[in-house]
Amino acid sequence: MSTVQDLGRPGAAWLGVPPSGGADPLALRLANDAVGNAPGEAAVEVTLLGAVFEVLSDVAVAVGGTECVARIESASGGARELRPFVRVRAARGDIVQIGPAKQGCRAYLAVAGGIDVAPVLGSRSTLVSAGFGGFEGRALRCGDVLACRAAAGTAPGIDAAAAERLLSELRTRQVLRIVPGPQHAAFDQPGRFCEEAFRISSRSDRTGIRLEGRCIASPFAGRMSSQPMMHGAIQVPPGGEPIVLMCDHPTTGGYPVVGCVIAADLPVLGQRRPGDRVRFEWVTIAEARCLAGELEQRVRQCMPGSRDVQ
C-alpha cells in the first residue's frame, strides 16, 4: 500500500471527495523540507511493510515518518544508511530500500522537486477508493515508473535530529486528544469514553481506524440522518465499536459522532498501527487551537528555512 500523496485536496467535500493526502501530514512536510521542496509537494507514502525503488536518474532523496531501516545500495557497490530527514544524493542505478516499520505505520520518501503526476482537483494525492489522483489512481505496483519534477534549488536546511525527536515523541504517544462531537450530549455518560483504552483493529485503513474493546452504547440506535464528516471524527455505529475516520473518509455518514481528534494529534493518528492501544482525552476547542499552535512552533524550530503551508 504505497501511494503518491501530498497535503491533500481540502474544499472538495461538497463534491463528495475527501481530502486524502498524507496520513501523517507532519512527516510528509518535514521530508519535503529536507530535500528543499515546498511543504505540499507529492511524495510516496509507504505503509508498514516497506518498499524498494530503483533510481533512474540522479536525485536528492529523504525518508522520514515511521521508525524503520532505510538505506541506499550503490550501483558501484556498498550501501549507505538513510537517516531520518537527512538529504542524500542518489545516483542512477542506486537502490533505495525502506524496510518494514518497527514503530509507527507510515514512512515518506521525498524526492527533490516532488513526484510528477497530474493534479486532480488541485492535488496529486491518490484516492484509491475513487480511482483517481496519484499514479493511475491506485497503489504502486512492481515496475511502475515515477517521474520527478524539476528541483526548486538548494535545500533550505532542516534540523534532522530535532525533527526525528519530534516524530518519535508523536509515534509513541498513546493518548489522542478529542473535542466533543455534534451528538456528544446524546451519549449516555460520554465522559466514560475516555476511561478505557481501545485496541486498533486489523480492519483499519486510510478510510477509518476501527477500535476494539468496550462497546459504547450509541444513541438513536446508532442510526440517524446523514451529516457531514471530517478527518478525525469518531463515529459509533449500532454495534458500539467506534470508528475514527481517516484522510480518505466518506464525506457524509449516518452514525452518531461522539468526538473528533484535534488537528495537532492527526499525525499521531496517522502513525497508529493494528494492535496498538489508544486512549482518548477530552479538551476544549480553545485548548485544541492552542495545542495546534504549539505543535506548529515546534515544527518551525526543526525547519529554519520553512515556508508557510498554502
* Separation, N- and C-terminal Cα atoms: 27 Å
Radius of gyration: 19 Å
Provide the domain count.
2
> Quick one: biggest sheet?
7 strands, mixed, barrel
SS elements, strand count: 18
Would you list the SSEs in sequence order as H and E? Answer: EHEEEEEEEEHEEEEEEEEHEH
Mean of pLDDT: 93
Q: Top keywords for this entry?
A:
alpha+beta, 25% strand, Cyclophilin, 5-stranded antiparallel β-sheet, disordered C terminus, 7-stranded mixed beta barrel, 310 residues
Would you give an account of this structure?
- The protein is an alpha+beta fold.
- The chain has 2 domains: 3-169, no CATH class; 173-302, Beta Barrel (Cyclophilin), CATH 2.40.100.
- Helices cover 15% and strands 25% of the residues.
- It is built from 4 helices and 18 strands.
- The protein has helices spanning 25-34, 160-172, 266-270, 285-302; strands at residues 3-5, 43-47, 51-54, 59-67, 70-73, 79-81, 88-90, 95-98, 103-111, 175-180, 198-200, 208-212, 227-228, 233-235, 243-245, 252-253, 257-261, 277-282.
- It has a 7-stranded mixed beta barrel.
- The radius of gyration is 19 Å and the shape is globular.
- The model is unreliable at 306-310 (pLDDT under 50).
